[in-house]
């Protein structure tokens, strides 16, 4: 039992000690300052990662932060994904949250959409973006439209991500980019990462988004390295990154 009095002392009836009130306050302030200083030190610490590792960090952090986040796709579990983005996540979170699927893009896209209607936040990995053309009906008529058809009664918080573009030892059917097919569909946001820094921050924001997001990765950029903060961070997905300011007009 702790009893206070007007003299500014606290009498601890259990330990029979008399403690100056200000002493406790000073100790608390000292600990707060230590934590703040430690956080500032962490903010200055950076680690070198490539894009594949940065995407892995983002996925791990969001799965740890939110139990409703899970991953599904071909070889995402035991194998760890074609480019190691989901490596070891099944052992950390269980195979129920890192779900290996059959080779049937239309089916597991529907599974992801249905789970999102019921409150989960799936990250749907296409082993190759070209293969997701097989799930075009699910993406267009279900993922993008259901929220509007049901007058906003529920959201579709899914992230559709995976590799695309021309790469080493990839044939024509493994080298496509599908954003031009998707961009005309209302209700979906399209995000493309280009560096480890923006890959991690953009993917974390995409996972937290309440509407469908198509997250594009390029095969030839997975091994691109740079230093990124050790602490978690997010980047906005509703605006482009200004790499360099200038006086001329650039149209992309």
TrEMBL record:
UniProt domain Transketolase-like pyrimidine-binding: residue ranges: 49-224
PANTHER family in the cross-refs: PYRUVATE DEHYDROGENASE E1 COMPONENT BETA SUBUNIT, PYRUVATE DEHYDROGENASE E1 COMPONENT SUBUNIT BETA
SUPFAM superfamilies: Thiamin diphosphate-binding fold (THDP-binding)
Pfam family, one: Transket_pyr
Designated name of the protein: Pyruvate dehydrogenase E1 component subunit beta, putative
Task of the protein: The pyruvate dehydrogenase complex catalyzes the overall conversion of pyruvate to acetyl-CoA and CO(2). It contains multiple copies of three enzymatic components: pyruvate dehydrogenase (E1), dihydrolipoamide acetyltransferase (E2) and lipoamide dehydrogenase (E3).
InterPro entries: THDP-binding (IPR029061), Transketolase-like_Pyr-bd (IPR005475)
Catalytic activity entry: N(6)-[(R)-lipoyl]-L-lysyl-[protein] + pyruvate + H(+) = N(6)-[(R)-S(8)-acetyldihydrolipoyl]-L-lysyl-[protein] + CO2
Cofactor(s) of this protein: thiamine diphosphate
Phylogenetic placement of the source organism: Eukaryota, Sar, Alveolata, Apicomplexa, Aconoidasida
Gene3D superfamilies on file: 3.40.50.970
Keyword set, alphabetical order: Oxidoreductase, Pyruvate, Thiamine pyrophosphate
A GO molecular-function annotation: pyruvate dehydrogenase (acetyl-transferring) activity
């Amino acid at each position: 039992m702790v009893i206070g009095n007007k003299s500014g002392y606290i009498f601890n009836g259990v330990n029979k000690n008399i403690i100056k009130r200000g002493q406790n306050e000073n100790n608390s302030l000292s600990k707060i300052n230590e934590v703040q200083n430690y956080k500032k030190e962490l903010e200055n610490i950076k680690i070198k990662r490539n894009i594949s590792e940065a995407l892995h960090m983002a996925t791990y952090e969001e799965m740890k932060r939110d139990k409703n986040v899970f991953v599904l796709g071909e070889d995402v579990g035991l194998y760890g994904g074609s480019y190691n983005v989901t490596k070891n996540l099944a052992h950390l979170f269980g195979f129920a949250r890192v779900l290996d699927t059959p080779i049937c893009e239309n089916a597991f896209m529907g599974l992801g959409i249905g789970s999102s209607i019921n409150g989960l936040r799936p990250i749907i990995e296409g082993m190759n973006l070209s293969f997701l053309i097989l799930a075009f009906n699910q993406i267009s008529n279900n993922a993008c439209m259901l929220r509007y058809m049901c007058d906003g009664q529920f959201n579709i918080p899914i992230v559709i991500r995976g590799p695309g573009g021309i790469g080493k030892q990839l044939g024509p059917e493994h080298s496509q980019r599908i954003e031009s097919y998707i961009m005309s569909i209302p209700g979906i946001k399209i995000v493309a990462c280009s560096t480890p820094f923006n890959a991690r921050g953009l993917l974390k924001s995409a996972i937290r988004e309440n509407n469908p997001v198509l997250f594009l990765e390029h095969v030839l950029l997975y091994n691109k390295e740079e230093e990124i903060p050790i602490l978690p961070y997010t980047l906005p997905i509703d605006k482009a990154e200004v790499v360099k300011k200038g006086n001329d007009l650039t149209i992309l």
